[in-house]
Write a structure and sequence with these properties.
By secondary structure, this protein is mainly alpha-helical.
Length: about 525
């Protein structure tokens, strides 16, 4: 174990590589950039094991939108093999930035917005943090509506027709609004108990959801006398040019599904017991679970087609067709646990920390979670999932492209420039190594803007068979000459932001433009102090 001075406080590096503040001479400054929720987690409290990370991913991946990803790809012309292949490849790709950014959380015990301070500056980190928070709030609204819909449909199966045909308000029965509000309240109660309660919830939720999904498969297989004809249906796209034209934007959309977590995974890995635990847990949990869940959704849906004459992609609506009250209750509990698991972990933890980073003195983790809940309701996001073209290409594609630029800057800074060496105290100290110019690193902001423009500037809407536009963007693209890049949004954003950031940082180093004491000079100090 070694102690190193870092310009105003000492940090201790353990033999396994994890770093923490020295308990005697490593106090953080008291200012507007520090709070109990943002400070580094002491090594003694970094207790998450491989199973905890595996359970986290199983719990997050087994949810209704994950289930319907394969259905969305089949709906646009792929067969089940092409859909599962696309999802499997996308999750292998997004696992890489997940592990690279997660490394900082386990090594230093810091959440995503604090990690972003190293590259964007103490104030500039609010830019990627608020982008991530806005996306999470939208996802929170989508998942909460789905959870409320599950209560509404399955409870209606138990209560009777009067529940589903109650007086409408705002286009929906008041009972559906009540279900929505009930689900929202349950989420708020769980998250208010903190991260340790989340860890315990994920530990038992993960195996429960797996059992529920397998039970649904068994039930439909028995009713169908087999898995139905869907597995034998050929792709409407074939394996030629028609398929590849759809494959790449679909792949970027699937990457966009978890590109959010590729940024804020340090919010969870900061509790990791070892780097091996977070690496193995995520590698075992993310790509395998998402692929198997996609395959499971296809198998269950194929059985539903054999039984009901048409594929029922929504597992809530499929479960509502069950006749046994006990089976309906079990299905209802499974849907609720699955949706709670992903929504709390993926869509509340991040914006709670992000909003705390914005105003640490006035917003703590619980307040940030409550704000997330309110915003998630206020933006009415459920319409996003109504059309698979809008959901995959517009929502997931644009979000993935934008967030890919942030990941590019973070990874280039942490792994290439700083070689994973950070100064913990300086991440909380104004006018220190990561202050740059007025708290902003203009190189990171420029890379974000350039990468974002290239990634999503050419966003366009396709035409259906009847020539109708599908989506809100112009057919020729928002910026027509960038349209060819739009199908590769996440990859374009990630690569271009990385290159621009490294080029600008190298130029600043050669010209001696330290940027107010932070820029590359801050990186050199960090290497020297933490070596």
């Amino acid at each position: 174990m070694t102690d190193t001075a870092t310009g105003g406080g000492r940090q201790r590096q353990h033999p396994d590589g994890r770093v923490e503040l020295d308990p005697v001479d490593g106090a953080l400054p008291s200012n507007g950039f520090t709070s109990e929720d943002l400070r580094p987690v002491p090594v003694r409290r970094r207790t998450w094991t491989t199973y905890n990370f595996l359970a986290l991913w199983v719990g997050m991946a087994h949810n209704i939108p994950s289930w319907t990803l394969a259905s969305g790809l089949v709906a646009i012309g792929m067969d089940w093999k092409q859909a599962v292949l696309t999802i499997a490849l996308a999750n292998l790709i997004v696992l890489a930035p997940m592990l690279l950014t997660g490394h900082a959380g386990t090594k230093y015990g810091i959440p995503f917005p604090v990690f972003a301070r190293a590259s964007f500056g103490l104030r500039g980190a609010n830019l990627p943090a608020l982008i991530r928070a806005a996306v999470a709030c939208a996802w929170f609204g989508i998942q909460t509506w789905i959870g409320g819909e599950g209560i509404f449909l399955l409870a209606g199966k138990l209560v009777g027709e009067s529940w589903r045909t109650a007086t409408e308000f705002g286009g929906y029965p008041w009972t559906q609004w009540a279900s929505f509000l009930l689900f929202w309240l349950v989420e708020m109660v769980i998250i208010a108990r903190g991260m340790e309660a989340l860890r315990r919830f994920e530990n038992w939720a993960a195996p429960f959801v797996i059992v529920g999904a397998l039970a649904l498969l068994g039930w439909i297989a028995v009713k169908a006398g087999g898995l139905g004809p869907l597995l034998d249906q050929p792709s409407r796209l074939g394996w030629g040019g028609g398929f590849w034209k759809v494959f790449f934007p679909s792949l970027m959309g699937m990457i966009g599904f978890w590109s959010t977590l590729s940024l804020n995974i340090p919010d969870f890995t900061r509790f990791g017991g070892t780097q091996r635990a977070q690496i193995r847990g995520q590698a075992l949990g993310l790509p395998t679970t998402m692929t198997l869940f996609a395959l499971l959704s296809v198998l269950v849906t194929s059985g539903s087609e054999a039984v009901y004459g048409e594929p029922v992609w929504d597992p809530i609506k499929l479960a509502a067709k069950m006749e046994s009250p006990a089976a309906v209750l079990f299905a209802l509990l499974t849907v609720l646990v699955a949706t709670l698991s992903v929504n709390i972990a993926a869509n509340v933890v991040s914006p709670a920390y992000d909003l705390t980073n914005l105003v640490p003195r006035f917003i703590n983790f619980r307040t940030g979670a409550l704000i997330t809940g309110v915003v998630g309701i206020a933006i009415f996001p459920w319409k996003l999932t109504a059309d698979p073209h809008v959901y995959i290409y517009v929502w997931l594609g644009v979000v993935g492209g934008l967030l890919g630029t942030v990941a590019g800057v973070l990874i280039a800074d942490y792994w290439v420039l700083r070689r994973t060496r950070l100064q913990l105290v300086e991440l909380y100290r104004p006018f220190g190594a990561y202050w740059y110019s007025g708290g902003w690193n203009w190189r990171a902001v420029t890379a974000l803007l350039v990468g974002g423009l290239l990634a999503i500037g050419g966003s366009y809407s396709a035409l259906d068979d009847r020539g109708a536009k599908q989506g809100p963007f112009p057919v020729d693209g928002v910026i027509p000459f960038l349209k060819p890049l739009a199908d590769y949004g996440w990859a374009v954003g990630f690569a271009s932001a990385s290159v621009v950031y490294l080029a600008l940082s190298g130029l600043a180093q050669r010209t001696g433009a330290a940027g107010g004491g932070g820029g590359r000079a801050g990186g050199r100090v960090g290497v020297a102090a933490d070596g």
